[in-house]
């Protein structure tokens, strides 16, 4: 059973529970994992935030629960329709679609919240019931995929066909992986560097699948990275700018976010932040800018964050605070446009593979 | 001669002029079109901003000119190297690369300014000398292209191969158009709607090439839209959110920006803003939000802008100010996810084709 079928099954189960309650003259009720702060726990073994055992019960008997209960059921219904009709949607679409059904949401925050609740009940990310993010990132590399979306079922394609890269949207996220000659995945924060890596044939020279996140990785990209790691057994190396925000782009791919503690399919705990490190700024004498007050405040926040408990993160946070500087990936261009590919990348990969 | 060869020729001409001056014991000097406000003129025939005839002369004899003169020559040299070596770059890369040559730029603004100056001298956009924007948008449709970038020379491909769309980067921007069954180009502001249009087979039903700008269209995307319009003779219809910012996304594709008055290859004056109009909000009873103060201020600015002189723009600006509302493209979801494709789009296209 594939994930979409599994999601369909779980959504149907919610409806069945409600109908059964009604048939048996009971007020329908649903158990929902609590997402309050005290139920969000950092799991050191899974290396990500998860929800604890606290539940809340939403009962149609309670007039105060009725509005949220209806909203939740409608979201579950609408998601089931999306799956059945092979349509995808976005958080924003859902908010507007509710109006067609006269289901009232105060604003998009309220409908987003209900979608999150549905994720926590069926324990699957919303991408599995066809609600995708608006943002897109890109992929390139010797990976043969087979599409499963309508009109493209069974079509296979190699992801080196377009030298500018292919968008990561609903179709790619749900494609089957057929084969690859790559032995690693390289994730890059900046689109321009992704283009440079393609031009310099990093995918051949270092047998890699390249992914550009274009800033914080959208959820479907994190989902795809996890799949490449799990299904193909490929190690994942992440390259970002050398600043607290770049660090955190890597961390969210590795350990997820507290916001998504209720879903566990978006993280890649074995992925590695390969650079650009604070210590690289000094070692490579990179052009740099002084850290701003906001950068420094952010670093102190990260110091308190349980995800940043491993040695490398602690060391680099301290180094940032010591040198009070940050650099961008493009800063390597001071040694020529290809230095980052010819020198920095192989050095780092060797270090990582140790 | 293709555009890259033409750019190479013009860059070489700059160097030759300087060398000739030196050989003849003259201080080298260059004439540069003035980009001061009073030399930026709205050309009603070309329907875009252009530069007037004012020139400034930069002369190596003048010690105050020497720094900028050197910077400009270095940018021209570096661009020539990019072209010769088939490498692409970005504004930011250029700033950092200068350090490898000990050419001093105070900050990236200063190097950006010199690149703009070079564009104005050789009268070609920087994409022609391989300096591309960081941002990427996407394309999908029945268009067969032939790549010209190294490693892909002569490879042809149809842009329907990836149902999530293909990135518009240096390779696609410079590809040759071989054939298409499309009879129009539809440009869409939002990535999610682009996905919806692909899922609903808009490219087949309305024989169209689809482009997602993802906000303000990056320059290389505007360049590509112009090429589709000029080389294939395809009309271009632009769909944005119904607010002053969406309007302006359309306008910049159509008439360019004052900032780029010195290059004329980035505009598509015959492209049409097809919606979502202010008048559509009322006609389709779309869910809407009140205009903010900033929105309203922006509308009064647009009223003064010569690009907004045509009837449709004036009418829609006035309508926005009258109803004081704005809507998003996704607002059509209130009539079901496919309403925008089944009803709104064909109505609009019919209206446009009149």
Categorize the overall geometry of chain A: globular
Assembly annotation: homodimer
What kind of sheet is the major sheet of chain A?
6 strands, mixed
CATH class of the largest domain in chain A: Alpha Beta
Query: Largest interface here, residues on each chain?
Result: A-B, 55 and 55 residues
Q: What is the mean predicted local confidence, pLDDT of chain A?
A: 93
**Overall tally of domains of chain A:** 2
Helix content of chain A: 40-55%
Characterization of this structure:
The structure is a homodimer of 354-residue chains. The first copy, chain A, is α+β, with helices and mostly antiparallel strands. The first copy, chain A, has 2 domains: 3-129, Arc Repressor Mutant, subunit A (Orthogonal Bundle), CATH 1.10.10; 180-353, Dna Topoisomerase Vi A Subunit, Chain: A, domain 2 (3-Layer(aba) Sandwich), CATH 3.40.1360.10. In chain A, 44% of the residues lie in helices and 17% in strands. Chain A has 13 helices and 15 strands. Chain A has helices at 3-23, 63-84, 91-100, 108-122, 170-173, 191-199, 202-205, 219-232, 244-255, 278-283, 293-304, 311-323, 339-353, and strands spanning 29-33, 40-43, 48-51, 55-59, 137-140, 143-146, 156-158, 166-168, 176-180, 184-188, 208-212, 236-239, 272-275, 289-290, 325-326. Chain A has a 6-stranded mixed β-sheet with strand order 8-5-11-10-12-13, sandwiched between helices. A 3-stranded antiparallel β-sheet of chain A has the order 7-6-9, covered by helices on one side. In chain A, helix 9 (244-255) links the parallel strand 12 and strand 13. In chain A, helix 2 (63-84) crosses helix 4 and helix 11 (293-304) runs antiparallel to helix 12 (311-323). The longest helix of chain A has 22 residues, at 63-84. Chain A is globular and about 75 Å long. Chains A and B meet through helix 3, strand 8, helix 5 and helix 6 of A and helix 3, strand 8, helix 5 and helix 6 of B.
């Amino acid at each position: 059973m594939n994930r979409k079928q599994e999601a369909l099954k779980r959504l149907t189960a919610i409806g069945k529970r409600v109908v059964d309650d009604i048939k048996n003259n009971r007020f329908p009720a649903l158990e929902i994992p609590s997402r309050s702060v005290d139920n969000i726990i950092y799991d050191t073994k899974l290396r990500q935030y998860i929800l604890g055992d606290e539940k809340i019960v939403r009962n149609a008997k309670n007039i105060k629960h009725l509005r949220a209960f209806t909203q939740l059921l409608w979201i579950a219904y609408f998601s089931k329709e999306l799956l059945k009709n092979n349509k995808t949607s976005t958080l924003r679409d859902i908010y507007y679609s509710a109006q067609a059904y006269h289901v009232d949401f105060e604003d998009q925050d309220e409908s987003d919240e209900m979608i999150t609740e549905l994720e926590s009940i069926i324990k699957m990310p919303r991408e599995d019931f066809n609600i995708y993010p608006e943002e897109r990132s890109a992929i390139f590399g010797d990976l043969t995929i087979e599409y499963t979306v309508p009109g493209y079922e069974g079509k296979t394609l190699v992801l080196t066909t377009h030298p500018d890269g292919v968008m990561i949207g609903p179709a790619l996220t749900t494609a089957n992986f057929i084969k690859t000659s790559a032995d690693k995945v390289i994730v890059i924060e900046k689109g321009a560097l992704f283009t440079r890596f393609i031009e310099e044939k990093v995918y051949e020279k270092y047998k890699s699948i390249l992914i550009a996140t274009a800033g914080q990785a959208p959820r479907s990209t994190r989902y795809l990275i996890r799949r490449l790691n799990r299904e193909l057994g490929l190690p994942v190396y992440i390259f970002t700018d050398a600043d607290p925000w770049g660090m955190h782009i890597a961390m969210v791919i590795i350990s997820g976010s507290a916001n998504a503690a209720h879903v566990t399919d978006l993280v890649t705990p074995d992925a590695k932040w390969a650079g650009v490190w604070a210590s690289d700024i000094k070692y490579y004498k990179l052009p740099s800018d002084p850290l701003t007050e906001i950068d420094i405040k952010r670093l102190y926040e990260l110091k308190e964050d349980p995800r940043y408990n491993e040695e490398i993160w602690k060391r680099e946070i301290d180094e940032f605070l010591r040198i009070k500087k940050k650099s961008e990936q493009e800063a390597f261009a001071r040694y020529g446009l290809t230095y980052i590919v010819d020198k920095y990348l192989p050095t780092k990969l060797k270090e990582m593979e140790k």
